[in-house]
Amino acid sequence: LHFPAAANLRPGAEQKVVFITARVHPGETPSSFVCQGIIDFLVSHHPIAKVLRDHLVFKIAPMLNPDGVYLGNYRCSLMGFDLNRHWANPSPWAHPTLHGVKELIIDMYNNPKINLEFYIDIHAHSTMMNGFMYGNIFEDEERFQRQAVFPKLLCQNAEDFSYSSTSFNRDAVKAGTGRRFLGGLLNDTSYCYTLEVSFYSYILGGAAAAVPYTEEAYMKLGRNVARTFLDYYRLNSLVEGPLTPTPKTR
Fold this sequence. Notes:
Elements (H helix, E strand, L loop, with lengths): L1 E2 L11 E8 L7 H13 L4 H9 L1 E5 L4 H6 L24 H14 L4 E12 L5 E5 L5 H7 L1 H9 L9 E2 L9 H8 L5 E8 L2 E2 L8 E2 L2 H18 L18
Parallel strand pairs: 2-3, 2-4, 4-7, 5-6
Antiparallel strand pairs: 1-3, 5-7, 8-9
Helix pairs in contact: 1-8, 2-8, 6-8
């Protein structure tokens, strides 16, 4: 899916691109609902969505492992590969979806008229609660601090997102993931995250009991992810009319 930005499509204008992927692990179904929430919001008539479409280009691959989903696999593709461990050298034969997405990302990265600013890969977590993110570790302290801005803003917008559960690491086991590989490939103006959401529940601030996730709650998190780009790029003053609640997804 490609959502072009009107302002960025002027002749000679630089395109700011947000690239989102989901469902690389077939069994992590909540990731599809979060991704659906992002898509539904971006194509809606909401004034925030209009501003985002005018200033950013969103590219979304909502299902990186379609054959694994079709077969009902939990983690692997038809060929038995965990695609989220093959970003470093994906094969066009064994990992075709990954290969295609990686080629597209590299082409954009090498295009001087495109600034690939965000890569977010959506997953679901079987033991943790709430939504949270994984980010990368960099030697440059300023870059590391800048990387923390988006999850902090998302925590303000989404009551079920936990910044305290968000962590930054370079675990060797996850070197082949999209977040780790692209975090090492792209320049210091690009931010790569894994967005995780619990399979089962979230805890609101100050509450003692966990709230079970529903399909609507997952999609609401997706809508809040999209809304957070408005804050990140400081586009709030461009929103026309009163800020009504984000539309519910049926």
